[in-house]
Inverse folding.
């Protein structure tokens, strides 16, 4: 009985320790599972964050590719415009050089004709003096003949001699008269050629002057015609958006302060800015239908920033920020029906300020988007 009692006490003492061991083991397993779950959670968050960062980087690369494509297109258009203007300028220079060469040739020909005419006139003067001398001689001979005719009773030999002298003198006078008439005809022909050359030179000078005046008039007419539509365009925008804070007209430019269209350091258009640009696009479409097809107009969108530097992954400098903002405006206008070939985006960074100060007001004025309706 005593031994049974002792065995029961031993069994009773072992059971709590076994329970404690099982509880400890269970706690360890729970702790390990908790650590495993937490590690899986943090690992999943890390992978998700990397995926999001990768998506953002891909989006930024796509935007940069779009910007590069637009810049290349703008560069290509500018080069094409420059080549066209160069060709037109070269053609005008060639025409001017040809006309100048013609005028110079006519001038030289005119000078040669004048020299030849002066030489002919000198010859005519010399021949005229000879003719006068011969006419005086003829008068003298005729006087002698008349005197001899009154002396019919003179010797036959003397009369024949005087008659031969008179006939010889008359033959010389007739020959000189013929030469004089020929020289007068030549002089008249030279005078006519000289007058024709001078008239042709005057006509060519008038043609050159008329060509220049017509060209200047045509250019002035196109500029005035575009200025009229630009005035109408800005006038309608002034009526619609004139009361909006941060929107104004400066000279021939329509100016949006950047805060009206974009958040600080961003090139994404806000809702208010989109609405105002939509109104601008509608107005431009209405005006563009009135502009003649031969007026090659574009709407230039210029982006400007203040001089506070910016440097991040998306915008390494103010150049990129101003260009991206101008491109965002151009894209929105294209989405609202404005043809791409009628738009140009340009970024000036902080290098074209309206004010040089560093006050918040000056910096705010320099942060702007300018629109200019001009001719390409």
């Amino acid at each position: 009985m005593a031994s049974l009692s002792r065995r029961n006490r031993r069994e009773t003492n072992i059971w709590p320790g076994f329970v404690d061991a099982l509880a400890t083991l269970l706690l360890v397993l729970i702790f390990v599972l908790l650590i495993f779950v937490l590690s899986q959670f943090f690992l999943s968050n890390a992978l998700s964050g990397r995926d999001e960062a990768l998506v953002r980087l891909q989006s930024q690369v796509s935007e940069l590719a779009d910007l590069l494509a637009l810049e290349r297109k703008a560069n290509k258009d500018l080069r094409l415009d420059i080549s066209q203007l160069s060709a037109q300028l070269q053609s005008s220079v060639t025409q001017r050089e040809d006309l100048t060469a013609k005028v110079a040739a006519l001038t030289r020909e005119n000078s040669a004709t004048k020299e030849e005419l002066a030489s002919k006139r000198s010859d005519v003067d010399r021949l005229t003096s000879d003719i006068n001398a011969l006419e005086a001689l003829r008068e003298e001979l005729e006087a002698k003949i008349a005197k001899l005719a009154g002396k019919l009773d003179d010797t036959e030999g003397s009369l024949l001699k005087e008659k031969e002298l008179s006939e010889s003198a008359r033959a010389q006078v007739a020959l000189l008269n013929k030469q004089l008439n020929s020289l007068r005809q030549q002089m008249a022909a030279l005078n006519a050629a000289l007058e024709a050359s001078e008239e042709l030179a005057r006509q060519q000078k008038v043609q050159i002057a008329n060509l220049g005046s017509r060209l200047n008039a045509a250019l002035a007419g196109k500029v005035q015609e575009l200025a009229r539509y630009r005035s109408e365009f800005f006038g309608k925008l002034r009526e619609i958006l004139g009361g909006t804070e941060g929107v104004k007209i400066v000279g021939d430019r329509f100016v949006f302060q950047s805060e009206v269209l974009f958040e600080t350091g961003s090139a994404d258009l806000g809702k208010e800015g989109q609405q105002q640009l939509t109104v601008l696009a509608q107005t431009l479409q209405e005006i563009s239908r009135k502009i003649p097809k031969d007026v090659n107009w574009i709407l230039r969108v210029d982006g400007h920033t203040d001089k506070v530097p910016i440097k991040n992954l998306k915008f390494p400098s103010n150049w990129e920020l101003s260009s991206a903002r101008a491109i965002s405006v151009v894209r929105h206008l294209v989405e609202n029906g404005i043809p791409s070939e009628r738009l140009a985006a340009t970024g000036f960074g902080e290098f074209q300020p309206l004010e040089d100060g560093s006050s918040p007001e000056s910096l705010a004025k320099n942060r702007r988007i300018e629109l200019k309706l001009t001719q390409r």
